[in-house]
Amino acid sequence: MADFVDLRSDTVTRPTAGMREAMATAEVGDDVYGEDPTVNALEAEVAALFGHEAALFAPSGSMANQIALQLVVPPGEELLCDADAHVVTYEIGAAAAYGGISSRTWPAVGADIDPDVVAAMIRPDGYFAVPTRAIAVEQTHNRGGGGVIPLATLRQLRQVADDAQVALHCDGARIWHAHVADGVPLVEYGQLFDTLSVCLSKGLGAPIGSLVVGSAEKIARARLIRKRMGGGMRQVGVLAAAGRYALAHHVDRLAEDHAKAARLAEAIAPFGVLATAARTNLVPLDLTKFALDAHALAAAARAEGVLVSVLGPRTARLVTHMDVDDAGIDRAIEVLTRVLRA
After folding, report:
1. Which residues form the Aromatic amino acid beta-eliminating lyase/threonine aldolase domain (predicted)?
2. In this predicted model, what pLDDT tens digit does every residue of 219-254 receive, in sequence order?
């Protein structure tokens, strides 16, 4: 879709020339045997970035999340998360289907979590109720408009989890954006969570891949769960090399995507459809009170060469990324403001 300005997602990026070169020259081996040196290097690098003992490369963010949840919630027991969390919204019931995990949610508030509300929901052992075993949060929050959970809130949630003796998991698909937006070191995020999943193909520009991060004991178990779920891979160093290149070259530049999102948000704000302020690279649109619904908006924009993501009948989203340059943002602003004005 070279002729389109594609704002549907930051997963639509294509590998850069440097990334393709890294992939082409990657040293490889059989990862099921633990013999792919590039995968091993990627796993060690990511574990160190977050201050954990180990990490495991997985084909997708959904698989990484579901592996992590199975590490911290036994079958028939409970996960707490928010009603818009990716793990219960976009992973097609995998927690229940694969992990036998029961889930209960607090009302969707994006990144604006109240730790006291979460604490009050935790069910202890006994009383013939399903016991809570873990809390999951999303950093940044996808359906929350790319919102960043404040470090102070995460620290409070860590205390809530410790007090209740439950685990805390981070769906960190876009945690790199939180790191760049708020300047919080990755290792500081890492020390707050028992498990994390982090994605290389959202924003960082790799064609595929996420990692589960945790203790050595957890990651040893994670390897077995990954194999059970069909995620055992062979000479996958060609993909891990793309991830290593992304970590080396594409993290700091996320600030450029934030600036582009802010430009989009500023241009659209006068039309009254901006759901929240653009904190990172996501610009959420609430069309509840607007003449056009989300599908009509997307169709009108597409007819003029701009692709918009539809998240619901009256909910749309714009996402900036490395494959949309300043000229693309200018074109998107021109088209979207014309469509919204019509």
Report:
1. 6-281
2. 999 999 999 999 999 999 999 999 999 999 999 999
- Alpha-helical runs (H) found in the chain: 17-24, 37-49, 61-72, 86-89, 94-99, 115-121, 151-164, 175-182, 186-190, 216-228, 237-249, 254-268, 294-303, 326-341
- Which residues are within 8 A (CB) of 52 and not within 5 positions of it... i.e. 6 or more apart? 190, 196, 213, 214, 215
Q: Fill in the amino acid letter for 119.
A: A
For 267-313, the pLDDT digits (tens) are 999 999 999 899 999 999 999 999 999 999 999 999 999 999 999 99
Torsion 71-98-90-4 (CA) sign:
positive
Q: What is the rounded distance in angstroms from the CA atom of residue 306 to the CA atom of residue 332?
A: 6
What's the angle, vertex CA 136, arms to CA 117 and CA 158, rounded to 5? 65
Q: Which domains does the chain have, with CATH numbers?
A: 17-250 (3.40.640.10), 253-341 (3.90.1150.10)
